[in-house]
Amino acid sequence: MKKTDFILLFFVVVLAVAMRLYQINTPLADFHSWRQADTAAVARNFVRSGFDLMHPKYDDLTSIQSGIDNPQGYRFVEFPIYNAIFAGLYNLSPTIPIEVYGRLTTIFFSLIVIVCLYYLALKELGRVAAISSSFIYAVFPFFVFFSRVVLPETTALGFTFISITLLYMFVNAKKEPLRWILFFFSALSFAAALLVKPTVIFYGIVLLYLFLSRYKLDTIKRLDMYLFFALSIVPLFLWRNYILSFPEGIPASDWLITSVNTSEGLKSIFFRPAFFRWIFFERINNIILGGFVTFFLVLGLVAKNKSRFLMFLTGSALTYVFVFQGGNVQHEYYQTLILPVLAMAAGGGVELLLSKKFQSITNRLTSIVVVFVVLVISFLFSYNHVKGYYGYPEDLSQIARLIQTFTKPDDLIITDTTGDTTLLYLADRRGAPAQYKELPEMKNIGYSYLISFEKEKTTKLKEEGIYPIIFENDKLAIFHL
């Protein structure tokens, strides 16, 4: 990289930070708040109960997610590196809410992705592609929103792209001491990425390609290749084997491959037309790329001089999408893991459009104007979809304060929110995000209050007169069990 690249990258990073700081202080009640609340609750419990990474806990004590009663509130999904990072930051300076530290941590790792993306696109496609790729990742609304949420995906991406970039340097380096330093830290980074979010394992396809690009057919004989993947995967294997001892803390996940949750229960979407429409048209084309940037994406992928590296990177992303079809359709945040690939491919398309090959058809100035107009229009279309993601019900914070007023910190509560843990997190209480047993049984196992939002249930409980009502307004009622 030249001095020009560092200057350009600096401005892109500054722009990315500015975009991601938008509404950084809002309550944790925005889009996908239930998943963010679960992640933040693990960090908050680290702060309060100690950094026991082998026993992460959150606020939901029910059997709703795993099908097994979970009185300890165990949360065994990804290894809690991300949660521990922002919990540690909060411990150092508890001057801002812990979820803001979570957002800042996500932002930091998104900047790492931008830097790596610039470097890789520069080496493989050219400077225009590097600028375009990093710019799209830095400013496009979907990229921005999911680069500042309290979710582990972007942190895992940061570690993944550190690993890819270091291994890319490894296969091109000639000095032996440097090569093996790059090798070791690449393996370490990919191990961390897999622990933070195991689904980034599909980027192993790119890492394998990098070995192939250096050793060709001899790759199968190379002990360093086997050592690399052993160092990367063994920690994940040990963690997944360890958590089998805590089945109550492992959410059901089989459905993420083939099905989506609907009002009528689970419905298979595996290779159905609806899957292709939702992922490739609605999400990638309309929401993520704003419609017209898809032209650059396709151009970058079909170009005759396209990079083999980009081809394998795209293969990694597509494999992930096709394996987790249910999860990708059900949850927008699942697409976070493919965002760098989309940005790099689109950047490759911009590079090709502005290259000399196209100048016989149109002059350079016209091409630049076309690119600018397409980016602006696509940004606006994407923003029109994504702007609602930042919204949140303002009364939810008021309800949380009411719960804090009428209950004590150690009280177990039932929030009648159909499994959504957002209110539990905002109220800073542990308990049940839905009534999953009869009230007498829940009372016997330690629950003290029911927060009901259902008028019919409230009326029925008042008529029965078993549980005193301690607060009621037009939105909710609080019953003492």
- Report low-confidence residues grouped into runs of 5 or more: none
Range of strand content: 5-15%
- Taking all Cα atoms into account, the compactness measure Rg is 24 Å
What separation lies between the terminal Cα atoms? 66 Å
Pick out its properties.
globular, 481 residues, 21 helices, two-stranded antiparallel sheet, alpha/beta
List the helices and strands and how they pair.
Elements: H1 3-20, H2 33-49, H3 81-92, H4 98-124, H5 127-139, H6 141-145, H7 153-172, H8 176-196, H9 204-215, H10 223-243, H11 255-258, E1 259-262, E2 265-268, H12 273-288, H13 293-302, H14 308-323, H15 325-330, H16 339-353, H17 364-386, H18 394-406, E3 412-415, H19 422-427, E4 430-432, H20 439-444, E5 447-452, H21 455-464, E6 469-472, E7 477-480
Parallel strand pairs: 3-4, 3-5
Antiparallel strand pairs: 1-2, 5-7, 6-7
Helix pairs in contact: 1-4, 1-5, 2-3, 3-4, 4-5, 4-7, 4-16, 5-16, 7-8, 7-9, 8-10, 9-14, 13-16, 14-16
What does this protein structure show overall?
There is one protein chain. With 481 residues, this protein is of the alpha/beta class. The protein has 2 domains: 3-388, no CATH class; 394-480. The protein has helices at 3-20, 33-49, 81-92, 98-124, 127-139, 141-145, 153-172, 176-196, 204-215, 223-243, 255-258, 273-288, 293-302, 308-323, 325-330, 339-353, 364-386, 394-406, 422-427, 439-444, 455-464, and strands at 259-262, 265-268, 412-415, 430-432, 447-452, 469-472, 477-480. The chain has a 5-stranded mixed beta sheet. The radius of gyration is 24 Å and the shape is globular. The mean pLDDT is 92.
